[in-house]
Amino acid sequence: MIAEALRLIRVFHDMKQNELADRLGVSKSHLSEIENGKKQPTLQLMERYSYEFRIPVSSILFFSEKLDKPADLSISANRTRGIIARKVITFLQLVETRTANFDET
């Protein structure tokens, strides 16, 4: 689910909604509606997320697809999904760090 992926990326980067909303050029209420799944993000907003967090839009979409889960998953499967999601976020952070280091050289 794209809403949860965007929220997790923000939380992972230890950023408050109002701070990210300012950086993305949207209102906090609009960002809240997106993260709660009440509104869908536009491609332009996805590109701003990509720029802000230095994560390709395709990676954000891939991550969001992996967060989707059937309603009948067991507690063990939910736990596994959470572990995998955290590992994906860690991987994305590694990519961000390496990209930043590459850009500096």
Based on the model shown, name its key terms.
105 residues, mainly alpha, 434 Repressor (Amino-terminal Domain), 0% strand
Topology:
Blueprint: H1 2-12, H2 17-24, H3 28-35, H4 43-53, H5 57-67, H6 75-104
Helix pairs in contact: 1-5, 2-3, 5-6
Question: What would you note in describing this structure?
Answer:
- The chain has 105 residues and is mostly helical.
- It has a single domain, classed as lambda repressor-like DNA-binding domains (434 Repressor (Amino-terminal Domain)), CATH 1.10.260.40.
- 75% of the residues lie in helices and 0% in strands.
- It contains six helices and no strands.
- The protein has helices at residues 2-12, 17-24, 28-35, 43-53, 57-67, 75-104.
- The radius of gyration is 14 Å and the shape is globular.
Can you summarize this structure?
The protein has 105 residues and is mainly α.
Distance between the termini: 36 Å
How many beta-strand segments? 0
CATH superfamily membership: lambda repressor-like DNA-binding domains
CATH topology: 434 Repressor (Amino-terminal Domain)
> What count of structural domains?
1
Query: Which structural class is indicated by helix and strand composition?
Result: mainly alpha
Rg over alpha carbons: 14 Å
